[in-house]
Each structure stands twice: as structure tokens, then as C-alpha cells.
Design a protein that fits this description.
Number of strands: 15
Protein name: DUF6515 family protein
Strand content: 25-35%
Strand order of the largest sheet: 8-12-11-10-9-13
Pfam families: DUF6515
Order of helices and strands: HEEEEEEEEEEEEEEHHE
InterPro entries: DUF6515
Signal peptide: 1-24
Keywords: Signal
Helix content: 25-40%
Largest sheet: 6 strands, antiparallel
Length: 225
């Protein structure tokens, strides 16, 4: 009887360990291929790994800081800062992390060409700030927008809905004329995004940024549509 109990206990322990390993694998798979709510990197819905930002009536879901993805979302913009690279897409900031990409808070002072697609306008002392996912942005003439520290007294400020944005052109399609692989196409696109940010007015005008990216991709052997 004692031997039976011991064997049964050992079997239960092994079963629990195996189950834990499967769960851990599934959780890591979610992190690398689709993220919280399986809605894709940068665009999570309700679910594990996502949090709801309701501040200032923003009402939007974001992946939590520290969440890891295997790939970046298509269209992520590479922005150099402090000797390294950050990636920005849909209001979410990423950094390279052991061959993958981790969701992070952006550094104060980093510039970006366009605002997140969803944001709340917050007025402090008559000056508009743009808020999304616990990050505040301000206009940076000639450079687009810049990440700033939370303005003093922000908790007592007024908010307003952002104005209706003008129609946004669909993301361009890059067709490889020289049979470039999908991996090479993605690498070229990121390089061209980085190069585009260095062009005059590209950080202040999204159309200039997009034209510069398309010109770069054309020069690397892609047909742009």
C-alpha cells in the first residue's frame, strides 16, 4: 500500500510538471506570434498581456511593458536614439531583446515623424499635449513630435477629442523586382524607414516620410504600388 501511494504521488508530480511545461510553451508562443488577445503585435484586444488605457477618455488597449514578440508589426518605424534603435508602431514602442522585441517605455527626447493613430489631446497651461499609453508627446517644429515628461498638474487638465484625421493612404506594397526574399524585403524596408527619417521635413510631414521610404525601396529594386 505504501509503495502504491509513493508511485501514485510521483506520477502526479510528473504530470503536473509536464502540464506546466506545456503551458509555459503556449504562453511563449503567444508572446512571439500574435501577442495578447491574439490580435497581433501592437494591436492587442482584451486578453492576457494587454492593459486598458482609459486615462483622459483614451480608451484603448495596449500590450503591457515587458511583453515580448517574435516579430515587429508590419510598418514599424525604426528610430535611432542614444546609440541604439527603437521601433514605433500604433502607439507602441519596442526594443530588440535577445533576437526578439520587447515592449518598452520610450525615452524622453526621442523624436518620431507622426503621432499614434489613437491619442487624447491634453491641455496644460494653454499648451496641447498628446497622450497615448502613458506617454506624452509634444510638437517639435521641423522634426515632427517628441516624447516629453508628464507636464506638471496634468491630472487637473482638460481633454478634448482629437480632430478627425485626413484620409490616410493605404500602406504601400513593395514588390521585389529581383526576387528578394521576404526577410530581405523586410530588412530593406526597415533600413529605408531609418533613412527616410533623416530627410528634410520627413519628421514633420508624414507624406514626405512616406515618399522618402518609397524612393529608397525603388532604388533597392522594388516596385511600389
Amino acid at each position: 500500500m505504501t509503495l502504491r501511494k509513493s508511485l501514485l504521488g510521483a506520477a502526479l508530480v510528473l504530470l503536473a510538471c509536464a502540464s506546466s511545461g506545456v503551458l509555459a510553451q503556449e504562453h511563449d508562443h503567444d508572446r512571439g506570434h500574435g501577442g495578447p488577445g491574439r490580435a497581433g503585435p501592437g494591436r492587442p484586444g482584451p486578453g492576457p498581456g494587454a492593459h486598458f488605457d482609459g486615462r483622459f477618455g483614451h480608451n484603448h488597449y495596449y500590450p503591457s511593458r515587458g511583453y515580448v514578440y517574435g516579430t515587429l508589426p508590419v510598418g514599424a518605424v525604426s528610430i535611432g536614439f542614444g546609440g541604439g534603435n527603437y521601433f514605433f508602431h500604433g502607439g507602441v514602442w519596442y526594443r530588440p531583446y535577445s533576437g526578439r522585441y520587447i515592449v518598452v517605455a520610450p525615452p524622453i527626447g526621442i523624436y518620431l515623424p507622426v503621432l499614434p493613430p489613437d491619442y487624447a489631446t491634453v491641455w496644460v497651461g494653454g499648451v496641447p499635449y498628446y497622450y497615448a499609453d502613458d506617454v506624452y508627446y509634444n510638437v517639435a517644429p521641423g522634426r515632427g513630435y517628441v516624447v516629453v515628461a508628464p507636464p506638471p498638474g496634468v491630472d487637473t487638465t482638460q481633454t478634448m477629442a482629437p480632430p478627425a484625421p485626413p484620409p490616410v493612404a493605404a500602406d504601400p506594397i513593395f514588390y521585389p523586382r529581383n526576387n528578394q526574399s521576404a526577410a530581405q524585403t523586410e530588412a530593406d524596408r526597415r533600413d529605408c524607414n531609418t533613412w527616410a527619417t533623416s530627410q528634410p521635413n520627413a519628421m514633420a510631414d508624414a507624406k514626405v516620410f512616406q515618399r522618402a521610404t518609397e524612393a529608397c525601396m525603388d532604388g533597392r529594386g522594388y516596385t511600389v504600388r
